[in-house]
Amino acid sequence: MDKNILGNNVITQIGILVHDIEKTSQAYADFFGIDKPDWSMTDTADIAQTEYRKQPTQARVKLAFFDMGSLQLELIEPDHNPSTWREYLNEHGEGPHHIAFVINGMKGKVAMMERNQMPLLQKGEYTGGRYAYMDTFNDLKIILELLEND
Amino acid sequence: MDKNILGNNVITQIGILVHDIEKTSQAYADFFGIDKPDWSMTDTADIAQTEYRKQPTQARVKLAFFDMGSLQLELIEPDHNPSTWREYLNEHGEGPHHIAFVINGMKGKVAMMERNQMPLLQKGEYTGGRYAYMDTFNDLKIILELLEND
């Protein structure tokens, strides 16, 4: 395996799949004594340009973010279009989906990981940046998300 | 639900279940360009006083820790005695098991959570402290570990 592929090892986010973002957001807010954040919907496919397993998809999710120390906990409620979110939720039920790292040079990082048998699972754009979910299960036993902010 | 039960919302650890701690530790070390830590074995039952679902158990695990920003990533290879580690690994396969928070007053926190329909799943002692895994799946969609250090 190539070494130090990301260039950092700072976990910036943990993502958790849920069926009902309103209900689970309220539970987190109550349990931790913090305000319930509003959820937001990811962009439509024309803007997000989401690709899942190399195919364009209309998939969107509702997202809610909680600051939990130095990292964010992200709740994710997927729709029923094909995506890593929907597939993983169907297969594993509610629970942790990924840990995320901020990187520079998305194309290069994705290419290097694919050369190391860590395939691109899904990618998309958001306002101010882009993400890629990498299938690192074989080596790291979890999905890794790369985040690049412009 | 009682509010702000833990008294903080700082994730201090994420725990990942693995079948082969040597192999996965090496993969993490290579991928992130850091030294492979030695694993350690948890204490025997006479010291750890492990209880799983209210019953004493001989269960032990191999643990390896990685500093990943402000939190630790913990790899866990369980033995085959009854434990939340073994049960979860058998049911879900390798992957994330819990997120952990440092708390004060273990008995009080566990009692308050149990009053809020978040049952104690497993507890035990380690040198300098103790832990409790709480079944918070219904509300928070993940197992929570409480850590109390003396």
Features:
10 strands; homodimer; 150 residues; alpha+beta; ten-stranded mixed beta sheet
How are the SSEs ordered, and which strands pair?
Two copies of one chain form a homodimer.
Chain A: E1 13-17, H1 21-32, E2 40-41, H2 45-48, E3 51-52, E4 55-56, E5 61-68, E6 71-78, H3 84-92, E7 95-102, H4 106-115, E8 120-126, E9 129-134, H5 137-140, E10 143-149
Parallel strand pairs in A: 1-6, 7-10
Antiparallel strand pairs in A: 1-7, 2-5, 3-4, 3-8, 5-6, 8-9, 9-10
Task: Determine the strand fraction of chain A and express it as a percent band.
Answer: 35-45%
- Arrangement of strands in the largest sheet of chain A: 2-5-6-1-7-10-9-8-3-4
Q: What structural category do the secondary elements of chain A indicate?
A: alpha+beta
From the structure provided, what is the oligomeric state, counting identical versus distinct chains? homodimer
What is the H/E string of chain A?
EHEHEEEEHEHEEHE
Q: Could you name the CATH homologous superfamily of chain A?
A: 2,3-Dihydroxybiphenyl 1,2-Dioxygenase, domain 1
Task: Name the helicity range of chain A.
Answer: 25-40%
> What is the residue-averaged pLDDT of chain A?
97
